Structure to design on (188 residues):
């Protein structure tokens, strides 16, 4: 078994073991730290994943950004070719179950066109150089390579920010990591 696969299983297990109360407390703290960021405050466009049960919760980030008048785009993953596009939503009602059972926008909603934006990136774990342990499909690495105007910020829990994650040449690091107690600026 390869190292990344072992680490994915380990971090999924840690996240699954969290009680609903603990997860809610941690998600609230991460969300509050993110919403205090200068990058969030000045950005007019937020690209944000819609969280699954094992990811840092993003509903409050999405709802706050919408309330703050920001343009909010969320990802839609194609069934073929591992392609991800971001579509603008106007409320959480614009989402329905999509690929991998994750809530996604309808493909008819406006598509992100490469403007300057903050991109909230999911991962199971991050290292202190900004590399991430994703879910293994490479959606965000490909998206970040193709979209140089986005400022990638990773959301995590403290126990998922480690000294080193195995990385490969095509892995794209985030520029900032936010957890319940950490705001880590990465010099890339």
């Amino acid at each position: 078994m390869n190292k990344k696969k072992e680490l994915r299983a380990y971090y999924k297990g840690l996240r699954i073991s969290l009680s609903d109360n603990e997860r809610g407390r941690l998600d609230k703290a991460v969300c509050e730290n993110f919403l205090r960021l200068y990058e969030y405050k000045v950005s007019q466009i937020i690209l944000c994943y819609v969280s699954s049960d094992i990811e840092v919760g993003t509903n409050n980030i999405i709802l706050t950004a919408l309330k703050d008048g920001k343009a909010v785009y969320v990802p839609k993953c194609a069934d073929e070719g591992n392609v991800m596009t971001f579509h603008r939503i106007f409320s959480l009602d614009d989402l329905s179950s999509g690929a991998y059972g994750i809530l996604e926008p309808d493909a008819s909603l406006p598509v992100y066109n490469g403007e300057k934006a903050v991109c909230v990136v999911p991962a199971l774990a991050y290292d202190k150089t900004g590399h991430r342990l994703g879910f293994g499909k490479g959606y965000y690495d490909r998206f970040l390579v193709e979209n140089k105007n986005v400022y990638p910020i990773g959301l995590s829990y403290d126990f998922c920010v480690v000294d080193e994650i195995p990385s490969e040449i095509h892995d794209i690091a985030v520029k900032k990591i936010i957890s319940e107690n950490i705001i880590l600026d990465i010099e890339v």
